[in-house]
UniProtKB/TrEMBL annotation:
Superkingdom of this protein's organism: Bacteria
PROSITE patterns xref list: AA_TRANSFER_CLASS_3
Annotated source species: Seonamhaeicola aphaedonensis
Protein name: Acetylornithine aminotransferase
Coiled coil regions, renumbered to chain: none
Protein's UniProt keywords contain Metal-binding: no
Length: 382
């Protein structure tokens, strides 16, 4: 049967990967600066990852959440240690959308309210409440639109205050660095005032760290650049280096009850093994330090490219904004120079989301290629 045709695809077929490179079915090598939407955190085919997943699938790949699974607690303990989110509780799921769905459900359970406040250009997933809180009407079906969501301008604290004081908002959900929307960020003052307003109005503050979490921003979580304490933190993407896994971190003042949340596949043995290998590698290879060092180096190199009008983001969650739409540039990079990059809702933005163990030599290689590609694109436009 045919596949349901919803993805516009590049004519490239990856068959293997190693580190920051992937290889197609013709043997060509590509520099991967996108990591499949920021999913590849510790590099393709990392030996720690291969060993952990192989050993676990040879032992026990799956059983449901009806039995003891010590790997879940091991993962939770390592996550608490590395993230610094002391006392938070972990609920494991399979994806970012599922994480945000459960975060919103948890907020509604806790507050007994149902309206959600989200922000322009935000992206939180494609399922029920998560997609309703996403600022893209093209992917919101009528069944999703029945959710009670108010979408506000980022940094409009007066609007947030007005909405929360109506006393019907269960959650404010925010990306501290917007992903799909184009790497925009709120101000420190805004985020900290939103946090205070949530606490004053019995509203859960949800940090969507699905893309920005796990060290990508230069801190373990992007919210840690600010003086805020989220009630719920959603995680996924880089969490499993390609294995489907997600979760929510739940503040200790929220009490669990049997049956409140549930999942068949979430937190399975194989997913936990993959997740642990990522955390152990982030720790053993000092990847947060590398993110900051290489991210700073990347930004400095980008400043030397006159066609780049703005550099956005933090760490290795970066965007290069031009004064033209980048669709043709991305095609030039992937087809003629073998470099994967990302796009955004902002059509003039090139997104850079490489594995966290990228090296400066790869950055040099990219900018050498980018200069050549930009010259060709400019000549084509003329």
């Amino acid at each position: 049967m045919p596949l349901f045709d919803v993805y516009p695809l590049y004519d490239v077929t990856p068959v293997s990967g190693k580190g920051i490179h992937i290889y197609d079915d013709k043997g060509a090598e590509y520099l991967d600066l996108y990591g499949g939407h920021a999913v590849i955190s510790i590099g393709h085919a990392h030996p720690n990852y291969i060993k952990a997943v192989t050993e676990q699938v040879n032992a026990l790949g799956f059983y449901s959440n009806a039995i003891q699974n010590p790997l879940q607690q091991e993962l939770a303990s390592k996550l608490e240690q590395l993230s610094g989110c002391d006392g938070y509780q972990l609920f494991l799921v399979n994806s970012g959308a599922e994480a945000n769905e459960n975060a919103l459900k948890m907020a509604s359970f806790k507050t007994r309210k149902k309206r959600v406040v989200a922000f322009k250009k935000g992206f939180h997933g494609r399922t029920s409440a998560a997609v309703a809180a996403t600022d893209n009407p093209n992917i919101v079906a009528p069944i999703n639109a029945q959710q009670d969501v108010t979408i506000l301008e980022l940094n409009d604290i007066d609007a947030v205050k007005t909405e929360l004081e109506r006393d019907d908002v269960c959650a404010v959900i925010v990306e501290f660095i917007q992903g799909v929307g184009g790497l925009d960020q709120g101000t420190a003052e805004f985020f900290e005032q939103v946090d205070a307003l949530c606490k004053a109005n019995n509203t859960m503050f949800i940090a969507d760290e699905v893309q920005s979490g796990y060290g990508r921003s230069g801190k373990f979580f992007a919210f840690q650049y600010y003086n805020v304490t989220p009630d719920i933190i959603s995680i996924a993407k880089g969490m499993g280096n390609g294995f489907p896994i997600g979760g929510i971190l739940i503040h200790p003042n929220i009490e669990a009850q049997y049956g409140m949340l549930g999942t068949t596949f979430g937190g399975n043995h194989l997913a936990c093994a993959a997740g642990l290998s990522v955390l152990n590698t982030i720790e053993s290879e000092n990847l947060l330090e590398n993110v900051n060092e290489v991210g700073t180096y990347f930004v400095e190199k980008a400043k030397d490219i006159p066609q780049i009008k703005k550099i956005k983001g933090r760490g290795l969650m970066l965007g290069l904004e031009f004064d033209f739409e980048v669709g043709a540039l991305r095609k030039e990079l992937i087809y003629n120079h073998k470099v994967f990059t990302g796009g955004a809702a902002n059509k003039k933005l090139l997104r850079i989301l490489p594995p966290l163990n990228i090296e400066k030599v790869h950055v040099d290689e990219f900018f050498d290629i980018l200069n050549v590609a930009l010259k060709k694109i400019t000549e084509t436009v003329k």
